[in-house]
Amino acid sequence: MPVVESLIRSEADGTISFGNYKLSTKSKLQDFEHDGDSYKIKTFYEITKLERNGMFVYESVPGTAVEHFMVTNDGVKFMVEGDKDARITLQLEDDSDYEVYVDDMAVGGMKTNMSGKLVVSVELNEGVGSHVKVVKR
Q1: pLDDT at 2 > cutoff 70
Q2: Do the beta carbons of residue 17 and residue 9 sit within 8 Å?
Q3: What does DSSP assign to residue 74?
Q4: Strands 75-81 and 65-72
Q5: Are β-strands 75-81 and 86-91 bridged in parallel, bridged antiparallel, or unpaired?
Q6: Among 83, 95, 123, CA closest to 107
Q7: CA 1, 89, 46, 51 torsion: positive or negative?
Q8: Which of 13, 23, 57, 136 has the fewest CB atoms within 10 Å, measured from its CB?
Q9: What integer best gives the mean pLDDT of the chain?
Q10: What is the pLDDT of residue 94?
């Protein structure tokens, strides 16, 4: 799974891909239009952060590359790669229960806080993407 050299791009299946954990200095791109929304990406080896219409969507520490990121009414799914294990924070529905899957294995149920944030830790190996799916219960 390659990093996203352009920082963010639209995919043919309607999803977006973003992030480049190989950058040594922080890079950002704003006002990227996709499906009627405006996205802003900040990424480098320490952090990857995505905002949609000025609102938080995704953050990973350290930085990651994300492919085929898709938000649905029931949750979110994407493929993620990095050179170190990552802590990923997602914006979901406030005070709701979700089931989290990594590489099609259930890793447990989690509840978002009052601001709708959910934190997932994912073990990553460079060059190998991990599928993450978070589904509302």
Answers
A1: no
A2: yes
A3: T
A4: antiparallel
A5: unpaired
A6: 123
A7: positive
A8: 13
A9: 95
A10: 94
Whether the predicted pLDDT of 3 surpasses 90? no
Produce one character per residue of 64-75: b if its CB has 16 or more CB atoms within 10 Å, e if not: bbbbebebeeeb
For residue 46, the one-letter residue type is: E
Amino acid at the residue 77? K
Out of 1.10.1740, 1.10.3470, 2.30.30, 2.60.220, select the CATH number for domain 8-136: 2.60.220
Long-range Cβ contacts of 98-106 (<8 Å, 24+ apart): 98/134, 98/135, 98/136, 98/137, 99/134, 99/135, 99/137, 100/132, 100/133, 100/134, 101/131, 101/132, 101/133, 101/134, 101/135, 102/130, 102/131, 102/132, 103/130, 103/131, 104/131, 104/133
Residue 25: count other Cβ atoms within 10 Å of its Cβ. Answer: 7
Q: How far apart are the first and last CA of the chain?
A: 30
One-letter amino acid for residue 99 of the chain? E
Tokens of 73: 């009414």
